[in-house]
C-alpha cells in the first residue's frame, strides 16, 4: 500500500444534472461550497467542470476562474484539476483545452483516445439506451498538439484511460517526449459501452501496462462500482477518485447529500484499510507537482 492515498473529488461533471440528484452542484457558488466541504472531508484534489447559468456544461474560462478564485479566496489549498473534458456535452476540443494556457492549473485532465461508443442494451425493452459515440480526438497528431500545449504551460496532465488501447497512445506520446514523468494516469472504469469494466482483473492488466514510476488512480463509475473498487486500488498502490460526477449515491438507494458526504465515506474506508488520506501538501509531494496558482 502507498503511505498516503490521494483522494480526488470530482464535483459535478459535464453530463448529468439535478435531475439525477438535486444536490449535484452546477452554479459556481454551489461548486465552491461543495468543493470546500470535500476538501475539509479529506479530498486533496478537486476535479472541476464548469456549467453555464442553465446548468449545461461550458468551457468558458471565466466560469472556471470564478470557481478557482472562490476556492482560493476561502483558504482552500487543494490541488485544482481543471477539466479539458466535456466532449460528451458536445464542447469543441479547442474550447475545452483553453483552460490550460489561460489558467495554467496544477493539473488538467487529458483523455488519451479517439472516442468511445457508449450505451447499453436493455433486454426488457429490446432497445439500446444512451446509444451514442463521443468523439475525443481525430488523430494522433491532434493528441500530440494538445500534449505539447500542456508541456509548454507547465501543466500536469491527468491522463484519462478508458480502455487498454489508449495505453498505446500513452506509449507513443511518451516516446515523442511530450509527456513528462512521473505520469499521472486515471483509469476510468465502469461506463456502459466501450469502456473497461470495473473489475480487479481488468485493473491489474491496465496497471501492468504503465511505466514503473507512474502514479495512478481509478474513477469507478456508478453506484455499483464506486466504493467497492477502493480496497483493490489501495492494496495495489493506487489513488482514488470519488464524487457526484461519477456516482450520485452515498449508499444503495440513498442519494448523496453532497460531495463532502461521499468523501467522508471514502476516507472512512481508507482508514478501515489501514491507510490515511493525503493532504494537499502530501499530494503535491507524491505527484511531484510544481505548485501554480490559477489566475
Task: Chart the SSEs and their pairings.
Elements lengths: L3 E2 L1 E4 L17 H14 L3 E4 L1 E2 L5 E2 L2 H13 L5 E4 L10 H5 L1 H5 L3 E5 L3 E8 L4 E9 L4 H13 L3 E6 L3 H12 L7 E6 L10 H9 L6 E6 L9 H6 L3 E4 L6 E3 L2 E2 L3 H14 L3 E2 L2 H8 L8
Helix pairs in contact: 1-2, 1-9
Helix and strand content put the structural class at alpha/beta
Give the % helix. Answer: 25-40%
Helix segment tally? 10
Instruction: Report the count of strand segments.
Output: 16
The coarse overall form would be globular
Taken together, the total number of domains comes to 1
Average pLDDT rating: 95
CATH topology: TIM Barrel
Q: CATH superfamily, please?
A: Aldolase class I
Question: Order of SSEs, N→C?
Answer: EEHEEEHEHHEEEHEHEHEHEEEHEH
Largest sheet: 8 strands, parallel, barrel
C-alpha-based Rg, rounded: 18 Å
Beta-strand residue fraction: 15-25%
Q: What CATH architecture label applies?
A: Alpha-Beta Barrel
Low-confidence stretches: none
Main sheet strand line-up: 2-3-6-7-10-11-12-13
What does this structure look like?
With 295 residues, the chain is α/β, with parallel strands linked by helices. It has a single domain (4-287), classed as TIM Barrel (Alpha-Beta Barrel), CATH 3.20.20.70. It is 34% helix and 23% strand. The protein has helices at 28-41, 61-73, 93-97, 99-103, 140-152, 165-176, 200-208, 230-235, 259-272, 280-287, and strands spanning 4-5, 7-10, 45-48, 50-51, 57-58, 79-82, 107-111, 115-122, 127-135, 156-161, 184-189, 215-220, 239-242, 249-251, 254-255, 276-277. An eight-stranded parallel β-barrel has the order 2-3-6-7-10-11-12-13, surrounded by seven helices. The chain has a two-stranded parallel sheet with strand order 1-16. The protein has a two-stranded antiparallel sheet with strand order 4-5. Strand 11 (184-189), helix 7 (200-208) and strand 12 (215-220) form a beta-alpha-beta unit. Helix 1 (28-41) runs parallel beside helix 9 (259-272). It starts with a strand and ends in an 8-residue tail after the last helix. The mean pLDDT is 95.
Amino acid at each position: 500500500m502507498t503511505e498516503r492515498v490521494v483522494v480526488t473529488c470530482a464535483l459535478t461533471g459535464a453530463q448529468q444534472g439535478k435531475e439525477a440528484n438535486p444536490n449535484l452542484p452546477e452554479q459556481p457558488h454551489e461548486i465552491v461550497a461543495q468543493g470546500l466541504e470535500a476538501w475539509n472531508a479529506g479530498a486533496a484534489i478537486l476535479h472541476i467542470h464548469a456549467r453555464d447559468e442553465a446548468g449545461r456544461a461550458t468551457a468558458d474560462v471565466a466560469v472556471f476562474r470564478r470557481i478557482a478564485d472562490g476556492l482560493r479566496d476561502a483558504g482552500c489549498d487543494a490541488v485544482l484539476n481543471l477539466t479539458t473534458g466535456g466532449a460528451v456535452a458536445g464542447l469543441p476540443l479547442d474550447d475545452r483545452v483553453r483552460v490550460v494556457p489561460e489558467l495554467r492549473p496544477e493539473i488538467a485532465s487529458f483523455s488519451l483516445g479517439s472516442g468511445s461508443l457508449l450505451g447499453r442494451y436493455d433486454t426488457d425493452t429490446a432497445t439500446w439506451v444512451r446509444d451514442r459515440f463521443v468523439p475525443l480526438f481525430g488523430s494522433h497528431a491532434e493528441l500530440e498538439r494538445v500534449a505539447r500545449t500542456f508541456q509548454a504551460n507547465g501543466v500536469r496532465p491527468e491522463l484519462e484511460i478508458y480502455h487498454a488501447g489508449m495505453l498505446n497512445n500513452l506509449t507513443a506520446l511518451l516516446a515523442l517526449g511530450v509527456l513528462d514523468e512521473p505520469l499521472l494516469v486515471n483509469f476510468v472504469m465502469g461506463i456502459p459501452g466501450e469502456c473497461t469494466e470495473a473489475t480487479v482483473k481488468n485493473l491489474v492488466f491496465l496497471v501492468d501496462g504503465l511505466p514503473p514510476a507512474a502514479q495512478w488512480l481509478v474513477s469507478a463509475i456508478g453506484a455499483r462500482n464506486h466504493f467497492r473498487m477502493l480496497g483493490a486500488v489501495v492494496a495495489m498502490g493506487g489513488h482514488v477518485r470519488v464524487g457526484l460526477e461519477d456516482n450520485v449515491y452515498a449508499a444503495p438507494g440513498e442519494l448523496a447529500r453532497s460531495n463532502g458526504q461521499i468523501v467522508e465515506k471514502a476516507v472512512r474506508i481508507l482508514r478501515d484499510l489501514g491507510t490515511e488520506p493525503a493532504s494537499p501538501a502530501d499530494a503535491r509531494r507524491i505527484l511531484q507537482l510544481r505548485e501554480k496558482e490559477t489566475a
